Amino acid sequence: MTAGWLESGKLPGLVERSVRRALGSGAIQPIATQCVYLEDRGLPFVIRVVQSLKRKAVARRLQEDREARGLDVNPFLPYDERLHVADLSPSHVCLLNKFNVVRHHLLLVTRSFEDQQEPLNRSDFRALWSSLCEIGGLGFYNAGQQAGASQRHKHLQLVSLPLAPEGPPIPLEALLPGRSTRVNQVPGLPFRNAFGWLDLDPGGEPSGSSQDLLRTYRRLAAQLSLEPSVSPYNLLVAPRWMMMVPRSRACFASISVNTLGFAGSILVKNSAELEEVREIGPMRILEQVAER
C-alpha cells in the first residue's frame, strides 16, 4: 500500500468504530426527523421533518458571530479529532458529519484548503469512488452557497442507503432513463439536468475509475454549458450513474435545498414548512431553485 492511502477493506470497520466513539463523546449530534412520503410527477419523495434543530442553530449562530467579528472560521482546519474516521489519501480525510440526519453521513474533505466552488478533480473522485466501493451509499457535492453548501472548504459527502426507512433506496431512480453510453437527461424533471450512466468496476484500479468519473463529470458540465468554477450546481454520484443540476438559488422561501433534494429527499425544519411542501409540491420547489 502506497504511503498515505487507506488500505482496501478498512473503511467500513473504521466508520462503525468512529460512530460509536463519537456518539459516546457527544461529538456527533444526530438530528431526529419524521419521514413523510409524497409522490409528485412520478417521483416518490421523502420529506424529512426535523423534530429539533436547537443544537445546530446554536452552533450556526456561534459561527456567524465569529464571522461577523472577522474571525476565520473553518471547521475542517483544524477538524475535530473526535470526528475523524480515516486518512483516505494524501489529499483527503474522512470525517463524520457532526449534525447528521441520515445514518453514517460522511464528509470527504481536502487536507489543505480548496474552495468549494473549485471544480472537482481526479483526487476528489478517487477519494469518493474508493469510499463508495467500500461502503456503498450515495455521493454528492454542493458546489457553492447557492447550491446548498454551508462551508467554503471543499468537501464531498457520502450517505448510506436507503435514504428513508420506506420506499426505494434512492427515489430518483424511479425516473432514470434507459441505459446508454451518451450523456442524457432524466425525463420528467422540469429543470435543466445532465445524466450519465457509469460502467466502472468496483474492484478495479481506483486511479482508472477516478479518471472515468472525471471524464463523465466534464461531459455533464459541457452538456449544460456550465463552468464549474463559477456556476453553482449539485452533483449526485451513485455506483452506476452521475447527475448534475445547475442551481439558481439556495432556498425556496424558508426551505433550503441541497443535492439530496434532487435525489428525492427534502429536509424541512417544521410542520409549517411541511404543509408548504404539500401545497406547492416538492417538484415545483426543485424547479424554483434549479435552472429552468
Verbal overview:
This protein is α+β, with helices and mostly antiparallel strands and 292 residues long. It is 29% helix and 22% strand. It is built from seven helices and 13 strands. The strands form three sheets. It has an eight-stranded antiparallel β-sheet with strand order 3-4-5-7-6-9-10-8. Strands 1-2-13 form a three-stranded mixed β-sheet. Strands 11-12 form a two-stranded antiparallel sheet. Strand 11 (251-252) and strand 12 (255-256) form a beta hairpin. It is globular, with a radius of gyration of 18 Å. It starts with 10 loop residues before the first helix and ends with a helix. The mean pLDDT is 92.
**How many beta-strand segments?**
13
> How would you spell out the order of helices and strands?
HEEHEEEHEEEHEEEEHEHH
Quick one: biggest sheet?
A: 8 strands, antiparallel
Rg (CA only): 18 Å
Low-confidence parts: none
Summarize it.
With 292 residues, this protein is α+β, with helices and mostly antiparallel strands.
How are the SSEs placed, and which strands pair?
Blueprint: H1 11-25, E1 33-40, E2 43-50, H2 54-68, E3 84-87, E4 92-96, E5 106-110, H3 122-135, E6 138-143, E7 155-159, E8 194-197, H4 206-223, E9 233-237, E10 241-246, E11 251-252, E12 255-256, H5 259-263, E13 265-268, H6 271-280, H7 282-289
Parallel strand pairs: 2-13
Antiparallel strand pairs: 1-2, 3-4, 4-5, 5-7, 6-7, 6-9, 8-10, 9-10, 11-12
